[in-house]
Amino acid sequence: MLGRSDPVSSPVPRPEGRSTAPDPGTVEVRVPVRPLVLALALGVVLVIAAGLLGQLGPLLLPGFHHPEFSAGTNLYGEYNIPSTYNTLLLLLAAVTLWLTGRVARRRGDPFARTWTGLAALALFLTLDEYFALHDKLGAPIRALLGLGGFLYYAWVIPYGLLVLGVGVLLVRFLRHLPAGLRRALLLAGGLYVLGALGLEVFEARIEAGAAGEGLGRAAQLQMVSLIAVEELLEMSSLVLLIAALLGHLRRTAPGLALRLRLGDSGE
Questions:
Q1: pTM of the shown model
Q2: Tell me: the pLDDT tens digits for 89-98?
Q3: 148 Cβ contact list (under 8 Å, min separation 6)
């Protein structure tokens, strides 16, 4: 699946005497790694650039009035281009983590289940991103604890605790990884947390300061800038994660292939 020039084969050696000809009832999927990663990175650049234009245009460009474009590219919006692209990156990360776990299990890796657990976490974040589940937690927690200021987005508390818990559980797993992969995962995770949680507290402070009166021009510029950096960090970290995992799979399972076979459940 992952090599640009590697032959497509099963990651498990074929028994002697078995034909290596492809089964006509299956479809094999090849994924060229470098073009895929470059395309994902280009998508991040285009999404962020369009989002900045859509939000800064009405503030800085006289005569700019394209509400549909601004809504469709709003980096803080839901069910639009940026949120959909971020969701797809998370979903691709979840699938890649799951594949890594499958390969690890076949190789007898004692941490194979950890990869699968990370895939489940990425799938949860995928659903959270698309349905904005964390935003729905903010108001009840804020009202319960009487929070404001930097903690106006009160959902950062349970999610911050989740990050700490996951970090503690992953210590042995990270030590087990090759140094290059470990550094890449730590960098990707750090960038994602910095964007998803770190910058959110500053955005919360700006919104809380408006006290329901609406954001002024200066506050809007600050908010748009922070959101753009936040989304850039999140999306870039996901591209880095996917690239690191695909590189790891190329080294550990150079002939990995995805095969699609349709048939009855009994076959």
A1: 0.87
A2: 999 999 999 9
A3: 142, 208
